[in-house]
């Protein structure tokens, strides 16, 4: 099978997806959705405008707007066949009234549930979609540390924070693991931490088909080691009673359930929490190849593109015991 961009799916990738989706019709639905472009979705930036006002402005441009998630009116789907790049060129975007963000990408912050005046760490923050979402949720109160190791990506992050009117965020340029160690030495800990980790990106195939070309099993295994170290380091600076969200945009169990299982076995004072989301989710798997994971891993969430017409994602919520 090839994608709409004519990229061939690698045999090993297909074999792994078949194991994850053993039901034949489910597997076929997954392959079919990859041929369909993702929906156009935006998130209203309530630091600058209300969802009602933004919807009115966009409808005056004759855009057709839908708000499918009842308790989240800030999340909007643009159903019109806009010209390529039009979402990013619109005046309302340039003014920071909305952020162009994929639906599944908005879910980790929903699970994080940031509260006003909290100290929050976004450990792998660029380009800023989730950082700006957190700032919007807490109305620019408290403090967000937005960390990013790449200078080029920091420029994008800073630009997005400025456009969206975010004023409660400090940008840092550090290796995530070393940064957490330094913060621990300084005695700084956080109410909430988001680790939206670097990953193999299997869930982004609809919007970034070039991922097929870059995909390889060695990268997945290397990323798994990095992800385990990132989460382990971050948990060291989480306050007792605090919560950490681990998320990826991939389906690979090595980068998802294996990381969760590793954390649960390493930290006796950390528990995984159940997650409630406004979309269909599937529980984490407890066996992959010859490896068996803790039954608690089931509390994590797998999000498949064929279930909700989104990209693919994985989310786990940890709480440090008091």
Describe this structure in words.
- The protein folds into two domains: 39-101, Sun protein, domain 3 (Alpha-Beta Plaits, 2-Layer Sandwich); 103-320, 3-Layer(aba) Sandwich (Rossmann fold), CATH 3.40.50.150.
- The chain contains 13 helices and 15 strands.
- The strands form three sheets. Strands 5, 6, 7, 8, 9, 10, 11, 14 and 15 form a nine-stranded mixed β-sheet that branches.
- The chain has helices at 11-20, 24-33, 51-60, 86-89, 91-94, 107-112, 129-137, 151-163, 176-185, 211-214, 217-235, 257-266, 305-308, and strands at 40-44, 65-66, 75-78, 98-100, 119-122, 143-147, 169-172, 190-196, 238-248, 270-273, 282-283, 287-288, 291-292, 301-303, 313-320.
Based on the model shown, name its key terms.
single chain; about 325 residues; alpha/beta; Alpha-Beta Plaits; Rossmann fold; 2 domains; nine-stranded mixed sheet; four-stranded antiparallel sheet; 13 helices
Summarize the structure.
The chain is of the alpha/beta class and about 325 residues long.
User: What percentage of the residues does DSSP assign to strands (E)?
Assistant: 15-25%
Distance between the termini: 51 Å
Average of pLDDT: 96
Q: Give the CATH architecture of the largest domain.
A: 3-Layer(aba) Sandwich
CATH class of the largest domain: Alpha Beta
How many domains? The number is 2
Instruction: Return the structural class.
Output: alpha/beta
Number of helices: 13
| Sequence stretches where pLDDT stays below 50 over 5 or more residues | none
**Major sheet description:** 9 strands, mixed
How many DSSP-defined strands?
Answer: 15
CATH fold category name of the largest domain: Rossmann fold
Element order: H for helix, E for strand: HHEHEEHHEHEHEHEHEHHEHEEEEEHE
CATH homologous superfamily heading of the largest domain? Vaccinia Virus protein VP39
| Residue share in helix | 25-40%
Radius of gyration: 19 Å
Shape descriptor: globular
């Amino acid at each position: 099978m090839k994608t709409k961009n004519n990229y061939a799916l690698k045999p090993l990738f297909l074999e792994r997806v078949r194991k994850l989706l053993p039901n034949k019709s489910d597997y076929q639905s997954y392959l079919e959705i990859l041929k369909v472009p993702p929906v156009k979705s935006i998130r209203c930036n309530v630091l600058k405008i209300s969802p009602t006002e933004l919807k009115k402005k966009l409808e005056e441009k004759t855009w057709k707007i839908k708000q499918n998630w009842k308790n989240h009116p800030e999340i909007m789907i643009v159903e019109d066949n806009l010209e390529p790049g039009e979402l990013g060129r619109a005046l309302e975007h340039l003014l920071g009234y909305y952020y162009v963000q994929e639906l599944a990408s908005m879910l980790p912050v929903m699970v994080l549930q940031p509260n006003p005046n909290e100290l929050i760490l976004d450990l792998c923050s660029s380009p800023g979609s989730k950082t700006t979402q957190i700032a919007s949720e807490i109305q620019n109160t408290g403090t967000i540390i937005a960390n990013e190791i790449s200078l080029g990506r920091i420029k994008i992050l800073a630009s997005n924070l400025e456009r969206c009117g975010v004023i409660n965020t400090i940008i840092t340029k550090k290796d995530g693991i070393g940064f957490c160690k330094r913060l621990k030495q300084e005695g700084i800990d956080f109410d909430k931490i988001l680790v939206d980790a670097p990953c193999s990106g299997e869930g982004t195939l609809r919007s970034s088909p070039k991922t097929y070309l870059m995909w390889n099993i060695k990268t997945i295994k290397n990323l798994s080691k990095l992800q385990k170290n990132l989460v382990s380091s971050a948990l060291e600076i989480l306050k007792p009673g605090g919560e950490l969200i681990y998320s990826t945009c991939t389906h690979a169990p090595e980068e998802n359930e294996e990381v969760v299982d590793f954390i649960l076995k390493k930290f006796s004072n950390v528990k995984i929490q159940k997650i409630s989301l406004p979309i269909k989710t599937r529980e984490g798997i407890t066996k992959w190849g010859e490896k068996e994971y803790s039954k608690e891993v089931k509390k994590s969430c797998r999000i498949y593109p064929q279930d909700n017409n989104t990209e693919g994602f994985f989310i786990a919520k940890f709480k440090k015991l008091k």
